[in-house]
Structure formats: structure tokens, C-alpha cells
Amino acid sequence: MKQLARIFKVIEKLSEKSKIVIKWHYKKGDHSMMESGIRFSQALNINIDLIESPE
Fold this sequence. Notes:
Oligomer: single chain
Number of domains: 1
Shape: globular
Order of helices and strands: HEHE
């Protein structure tokens, strides 16, 4: 997760100049991945669309 956080920090910096939206796909029922997407969205100033995929 640390590497992902670093990537999001870079994206956050880039989003100051351009509109960036991350599409966060997680499998139906995978609440851990869904919650991770929510946490990243709240912690960073990045738009993250949470998309539930079929199992």
C-alpha cells in the first residue's frame, strides 16, 4: 500500500494542473478493497470513482 500511496501523491500533484479521475475497480463483496478506495479518496485531493465489478 505504501507504493500505491506514493503514486497517488504524484497524481494528486498532477491533478493541480489537469482534471484527473481514478477508476477504482473492486470485486463485489470485497469490502476491504472498497474501503481502501474510500480511504484514499478521503485522504487525498483526488477524484476516485468506486466501481463494483461482478465476482
